[in-house]
UniProtKB/TrEMBL annotation:
This is DUF951 domain-containing protein. It comes from the Bacteria. PANTHER family: DUF951 DOMAIN-CONTAINING PROTEIN (PTHR38455:SF1), HYPOTHETICAL CYTOSOLIC PROTEIN (PTHR38455).
């Protein structure tokens, strides 16, 4: 299986929706950990890359 490719400032869709009701996130930090920012309420979440890869549904077009 090919790993999903994503870069800094890409918009992604996660498997589970955020409590604010949106499912669109922007990647704002890439490294050993990934920080994503909710495009609905502005909350940000830091998670290990392994967990991010499991929860990622797709990379959205610009």
């Amino acid at each position: 299986m090919m790993p999903k490719t994503y870069n800094l400032h890409d918009y992604v869709e996660m498997k589970k929706q955020h409590p604010c009701g949106t499912n669109r996130w922007q990647i704002i930090r890439v490294g050993m950990d990934i920080r994503i920012k909710c495009q609905g309420c502005g909350a940000s979440i830091l998670m290990p890359r392994r967990d991010f890869d499991k929860r990622l549904k797709k990379v959205l077009p610009e």
